[in-house]
Specification:
P-loop_NTPase; 309 residues; 2 domains; four-stranded antiparallel sheet; binds adenosine-5'-triphosphate; transport; six-stranded mixed sheet; ABC_transporter-like_CS; nodulation; ABC_transporter-like_ATP-bd; Rossmann fold
Length: 309
């Protein structure tokens, strides 16, 4: 079997809102894929159709080569889910919670111990779930989704709202999984860094469609510009729409933040031209930083909006 997950020309609308508007997705064993996009892009709706929670209006979903219809029990035993927020029974301890979920799959204490170790919760095994931190709760949810050694793992924004340390702990569990198993993963995220760290394949979504897809390298090399110059100016009130219209390169100017970015591919020759342009307009450069291009920049180029607005 080539693909563990196949979504073929899938559509889903809610009261006229086209949440998913003709999307294809194919994921091979061992492949980690990120669905990256802003709020309302359609990521959750797509993942819920893959999870079998929603049915597409049109198109086909196949998991492990089978449609959900008629294969519910077979597929539930082989996939792992971690939704945006997992509800636990607060009075149960971590150990009791894992034992409960393990019993659904007929698994015993040995697997629960493995999951405690893998999710870094061994020291917390007797703690009530209500007293766990946000990061620990999320690691417990991830541990539960891995109990049945799933062939397909689906994570909906697994690290939203977590602090950077807690986020890195989740990443470390997922990177170990990637190293040691053939589980394939689809995760939705707003965080470019998360997509970049974990996933070799990225689909950028907006308004129900896939705008671009490929490896991070493919996506960023797809456009000619290699570097992003971020700049602020001393007299930002002078930087009106003409900065965008007549600049020698594509300038994105954020008048609220008083900050601009420009993408250039040949620093040696193009940077002096840009600096001359600012000077000729009477704009005084205050600060300037050169950095590599990110998926956020690519998204802005494609849509005129930022991923995090
Ligand atoms: N059950 C529903 N009823 C009505 N509209 C819905 C429903 N689910 C999703 N939508 C709409 O479909 C669009 C896509 O939503 P979806 O939650 O899939 O986006 P998302 O990319 O996951 O966003 P977020 O990152 O905020 O979770 C949005 O306009 C949303 O309001």
């Amino acid at each position: 079997m080539n693909s563990l997950i196949e979504a073929i020309d899938v559509y889903k609308s809610f009261n006229g809102v086209k949440a998913v508007n003709g999307v294809d997705l194919r994921i091979r064993p061992g492949q980690f894929t990120a669905l990256l996009g802003p709020n309302g892009a359609g990521k959750t709706t797509l993942v819920e159709m893959i999870e079998g929670i929603q049915a597409p209006d049109h198109g086909e979903i196949r998991i492990l080569g089978r449609p959900w219809k008629g294969n519910e029990q077979y597929l539930r035993r082989r996939i792992g889910l971690c939704l945006q927020e997992t509800r636990f029974m607060d009075k149960l301890s971590v150990w009791e919670t894992l034992r409960l979920f393990a019993s659904f799959f007929g698994l015993g204490k040995a697997r629960v111990k493995e999951i405690l170790a893998l999710s870094g919760l061994a020291a917390k095994h007797s703690q009530r779930v209500v007293h766990l931190s946000g990061g620990q709760r999320q690691r417990l949810a991830l541990g539960i989704s891995l109990l049945n050694n799933p062939q397909v793992l689906l994570l909906d924004e697994p690290t939203t709202g977590l602090d950077p340390n807690a986020r890195r702990e989740i990443w470390s569990i997922l990177l170990d999984l990637k190293k040691n198993t053939r589980t394939c993963l689809v995760l939705t995220t707003h965080y470019m860094e998360e997509a970049e760290k974990l996933c070799e394949h990225i689909q950028i979504m907006d308004q129900g469609r896939v705008l671009r897809e490929g490896s991070l390298q493919d996506l960023l090399e797809d456009t000619q510009a290699e570097k992003i110059i971020e700049f602020t100016i001393d007299n930002p009130d002078h930087a009106g729409p003409e900065l965008l219209e007549n600049a020698p390169f594509a300038v994105q100017w954020d008048s609220v933040a008083g900050r601009g970015t420009v993408a250039i591919s040949d620093i040696e020759h193009q940077l002096p031209v840009f600096l001359d342009f600012l000077k000729n307009r009477g704009l005084h450069l205050k600060n300037m930083e050169c950095r590599r291009k990110t998926l956020d920049d690519l998204f802005t180029e494609m849509t005129g909006r930022r991923l995090h607005d």
